[in-house]
Automatic annotation (TrEMBL):
Gene3D superfamilies to which the protein is assigned, alphabetical: Phosphoglycerate mutase-like (3.40.50.1240)
Active-site annotation: H10, E88
NCBIfam families linked to this entry: pgm_1 (TIGR01258), PRK14115.1 (NF010713), PRK14120.1 (NF010718)
Role description: Catalyzes the interconversion of 2-phosphoglycerate and 3-phosphoglycerate.
Annotated metabolic or biological route of this protein: Carbohydrate degradation; glycolysis; pyruvate from D-glyceraldehyde 3-phosphate: step 3/5
Reactions catalysed, as given in the entry: (2R)-2-phosphoglycerate = (2R)-3-phosphoglycerate
Protein name (Swiss-Prot/TrEMBL): 2,3-bisphosphoglycerate-dependent phosphoglycerate mutase
Lineage of source species: Bacteria, Bacillati, Actinomycetota, Actinomycetes, Micrococcales
């Protein structure tokens, strides 16, 4: 049995366009981001990929991307599951800060450590920071699990139970699963899928709005490491642009 898993990072957001650290701040898509989501759906149609169920984070940019791509694919009616475990990495006190300004203020090494190191989180956000999620009803049930900052390792830790219990269960039922999520939650999932080392994951960037298809074996291991972007040329260029943010 071969399972099909499609990963889709949301289209460009308002804060991607403004070059701001975003994390759990619930910003919308830009017009370009909406067009990317539609294009993602068109690419799935062109490849004959028909998702049976969609998993999203609790953030608008992923939810809207899923809706737009599924709408164009005539799959707007499929069941949906949403979970905070698919949210973007919580960016701590960096949420709302400009990437270029943080790079200039703290230097390349610190900037890259915060952005791409596996196990060093940014400083925690103050609970009364305007970009904290304090009191946000969608996280009311989280209790002590509510993060104030996260490194990628923390994202892997919170994502793995969801991958193993929810997504794998749907795959095992023979469903084609679409996961609409975020740059760093998808980096965490790719790290687990491809068994990428802690060091090498720093160099992996996920472009916005580009479907990445994994065919998986019975043990949920990829048949092809790294999966397959439906538009590989565009994905390469867009991933490069993500890597260079802040410069
Ligand atoms: O700001 C963020 O939340 C993420 C994704 O946009 O940024 P980065 O790629 O720098 O981790």
């Amino acid at each position: 049995m071969t399972y099909t898993l499609v990963l889709l990072r949301h289209g460009e957001s308002d804060w991607n366009a403004k070059n701001l650290f975003t994390g759990w701040v619930d910003v919308d898509l830009t017009e370009k981001g909406r067009a990317e989501a539609v294009r993602g759906g068109e690419l799935m149609v062109a490849e004959g990929i028909t998702p049976d169920i969609v998993h999203t984070s609790l953030l608008r940019r992923a939810i809207t991307t899923a809706n737009l791509s599924l709408d164009v694919a005539d799959r707007h009616w499929i069941p949906v599951k949403r979970d905070w475990r698919l949210n973007e990495r919580h960016y701590g006190a960096l949420q709302g800060k400009n990437k270029k300004e943080i790079l200039e203020k703290f230097g390349e090494e610190q900037f890259m450590q915060w952005r791409r190191s596996y196990d060093v989180p940014p400083p925690p956000i103050d609970l009364d920071d305007p970009y904290a999620q304090t009191g946000d009803p969608r996280y009311a049930g989280l209790g002590d699990a509510m993060p104030r900052t996260e490194c990628l390792k923390d994202v892997v830790t919170r994502l793995v139970p969801y991958w193993e219990n929810e997504i794998q269960n749907d795959l095992a039922d023979g469903l084609t699963v679409l996961v609409a999520a975020h740059g760093n939650s998808l980096r965490a999932l790719v790290k687990v899928l491809d068994d990428v080392s802690d060091a090498d994951i720093a160099g992996l960037n996920i472009p916005t709005g580009m479907p990445l298809v994994y065919e998986l074996d019975d043990s949920f291991r990829p048949l092809t490491r790294g999966g397959r972007y439906l538009d590989p040329e565009a994905a390469r260029a867009a991933a490069e642009a993500v890597a260079n943010q802040g410069r």
